[in-house]
Structure formats: C-alpha cells, structure tokens
Description:
The protein is of the alpha/beta class. It is built from 15 helices and 21 strands. The longest helix is centred in the N-terminal third of the chain and has 21 residues, at 101-121. The mean pLDDT is 97. The structure holds nicotinamide-adenine-dinucleotide. Belongs to the aldehyde dehydrogenase family. It comes from Halomonas campaniensis.
Amino acid sequence: MSFIExxxxxxxxxxxxxxxxxxxxxxxxxxxxxxxxIARVADMGADDTRDAVAAAYNAGAAWRxxxxxxxxxxxxxxxxxxxxxxxxxxxxxxxxxxKPLAEAKGEVIYGASFIEFxxxxxxxxxxxTLPSHGADKRLLVLREPVGxxxxxxxxxxxxxxxxxxxxxxxxxxxxxxxxPAEATPLTALAAAYLALEAGLPAxxxxxxxxSKPAAVGEVLTTDPRVxxxxxxxSTPVGKHLLAQCASTVKKTAMELGGNAPFIVFDDxxxxxxxxxxxxxxxxNAGQTCVCTNRFLVQDGIYDTFVAKLxxxxxxxxxxxxxxxxxxxxxxxxxxxxxxxQRHVDDAQGKGARLMCGGKLHTAGEHFYTPTVLADVTxxxxxxxxxxxxxxxxxxxxxxxxxxxxxxNDTPFGLAAYFYATDYRRIWRTxxxxxxxxxxxxxxxxxxxxxxxxGVKESGLGREGSHHGLDEFTELKYVCVGGx
Length: 483
Ligand code: NAD
C-alpha cells in the first residue's frame, strides 16, 4: 500500500476536515519488538482538536441527511477496501503493536466485520408509532443520530476498537473525531485514509494524534458540540473522562478494564478447557481486556489441568510478530514488562509455585516468557490487578459457591469463562456471574454479532449487534395533536 510505505519514511499527518495536517511537532512510533522508530506522527493539541470537532460538526447536517442506502453503500465500500488491504494493514499493525502477523490479520478481518454489519444494520434503524392517549393525537418515536462522537481508543486492538465505534456511529448518521492511542496511531490513520478513499465525505471522520492525550481529551469531553464520548481503555482514565463529561452532560460509552475469571469445574472436559485457556489467556500476549486474568480450578481436576496447561504454555513460540511461527509477540513497552514481573515476583514471594516462565525471554527486552503459576491465593496482586501479560495464575477451590464468590470478588465485570458439563451447574454458574459477557465451554467470545461490554467498573454501554447502533442514537418523542 503505497501511502503506508510513504508514511514509514515521512512525518505522518493527522486528518482534520478531509485535510491531512502536519503538526509543528511530531512524536515517534516505535516497534515494540525492536525498539526502532518506524515513523513520526503529527503531535496535535487543543486547537487542532477544536478544528476537528468543528469539521465533524459542520459535516454532520449533510451526513445525517444522506439517505441511509447511500451511507450504507459508502460504509460497505470502506469495508471492502479494508479487506483488500488486509495484508498491508496487518503488517503495519504488527510493526506498531507487536502482535503476530496472523493475529493482526485476524484483527483486520474482525475490525472490518463491524463496518459490514453496521452498514446493513443502519437500514433497520427504525422508529415507532405508539398507541395514543387521545383520539385526536398520534404518538411517534423518531430515532435520530446523537451528533458528533469522540472515539478514544487503546493500543491493544489498533483497528477493531476504532471500527467498533466508528462504524455504528457513521451508520447512525453521526460524525466522528478519533483519538487513537499514542503507541498505535498508524493503523488508525490508515483506516481513515481508506474511509476517504471509499468516499466518506470530508469531516465525517477525523483523526487527532497526540503524544499528550490530556489536552485533546479536555476538548473532546468539554466542547458542547461533542455529544457522545465513546472510550475504550483503562478504568482510571475512563473515570477521569466520565467526570470531565459531566459538565456538558454527554452521553458516554466506557469500555474499561477487566479481571476475567476462568473457572474449571471437576466435570469439565479438561482438554477443551486447556484449549480455551490458551486462546483466552495468551492471545495478543495476554494484552486483551477480555483475557483471562485468573484461573479458578476445582480440587479434583487441579493437578491435571495445571500439568496440561504447563505443557502447552511451554510450547508457545515467542518472537517478533513478523517472524514465521511466532505466537507470542512483545509486550507494548517497558512499563508492561515491569508490571508482569512485579506480579510474578509478588506471587512467588507469597508462596506460588512457578511451573514455567517467570522471566524475560531471550527474544528481546520487551518479550516475556509465557508463565504458569500454581497454588496462587487471593492475597497475591494477580488476584486483584489486571496483569495484561502472558501469565496464567491458577487458584484452587473446593465448593462451587467458593468459585462464584472468588469470581465476583472484584470491582470489574467484563468477561468471565467457565468449563463444566452438568447442565444444572452450567445454568447456576451462568446466572451467578456478575459479568457483562460469559463464555461457557468457550474461550473466545468476541463477534460483531453480539453485544460487547461490561458491568460494574468495567464500564457502560455495549458495542456490536443492534445494541451497538442504539448507542449512537437518540429517541425523539413527537406528539401530533389536533387531528
Ligand atoms: P489507557 O486508559 O491508558 O489509554 C486509552 C486511551 O486513552 C489512549 O488513547 C490514551 O491516549 C487515552 N488517554 C489517556 N489519558 C487521557 C486523557 N486524560 N484524556 C483523553 N485521553 C486519554 O489504556 P491503554 O493502556 O491504552 O489500554 C489498556 C486498557 O484498556 C486495559 O485496562 C484494557 O483492559 C482496556 N481495554 C478495554 C477494552 C474493553 O472493550 N472493555 C478493550 C481493550 C482494552
């Protein structure tokens, strides 16, 4: 893809109102596998952000008036272009984020699927007529776009977190200002470039890149023209943005952190559970919000599960995401490595048994050896904090009620998983888990067809499915009288 090759040599501009804007300043985007700078990107500030909001606001009236079949066709073209450029986008993603190329390609396909889905779903954005309270009146409910949407996204899914917000927003007739994570702005810019290529009008999609997100965030959360802030990232930043949004009473969607439990009951198919564990825990080197953070395993199956899991984890190939066969790439930066090592040291210091890993990998400074810890207890940091790395801590429980209590004993409530075969246990557990998403005998649950989101401090709102479109619409009740 020529524009990407060009970018990797020049300073990469941001996108404001259909214009590619270079900043006075730039910041470096580094490859986490090698620490080499792969590009420099425009470092935008509050004024640029206000310009982007103005561009989105000004483009809004024409976009919402564009017939839905035309909006849908433009989104469909965007979807096709992303798929046509899937290999280049995947390579770019691996370069800036580190995930293995096959996973990056998977994310491109997954990210594009939201555009395809919402291009169709927009056609079903229907209002209602309601029974009336008077013979001379008719009651209508119109479904209208919210207005300008700010999309603030994390580095761990550089494309999918953007399409999951922008596709339903644009489909509903909203316009967007994207603020991608400072570690991974290139994939976001490439996606926006393809949106313009697809024919989305200038100003409908804007991208503000910044090394210091607070100034940009301040504008996006306080400018009255922005009507919705859709954020994916950590819980502390989400709380901060939520508070900032209060002054102009914005609608918000908050996709925040998790502390996912993965319960294995005595009656589980242990091989299936180990397959699910590998998929859930080690995807993206453990840097996924729905990643298992805690394995809770019943006494009778504990030793078998730990032995089988350790064997599989030992065989995971670590290396540069561009190298053939790598399944575990680097962590995003040094702070991520430090946190993982702190969790492992803390657990070992409090009596956990190291089954494998527990140290940096020889592949480089940002690579961590996939790790299994046994005899983990609730006094250890891994019980409460999101590790966000390739570490599988295995807790032990005896009674089912104990597992449920441990699983729910966290302020988070994003995803939970469990493996069991008894149908009564399956129903009881499914209902008792205080989570927004539950995988039953399944370790990978994300799809554009289902509502993704959390409860408690894991957030507000849902992305994906028809619920994801509703998030970008307002209801307008109209009472027509005097008939
Ligand atoms: P982060 O909260 O540090 O950053 C997320 C985004 O917010 C980035 O774009 C960052 O630049 C921006 N940001 C930070 N401070 C800001 C401010 N003051 N104003 C405006 N923007 C600001 O999170 P991260 O480290 O990029 O991502 C990892 C976290 O994201 C983990 O906690 C993970 O669980 C969570 N996450 C959640 C989901 C979900 O769907 N629930 C999905 C992926 C990641």
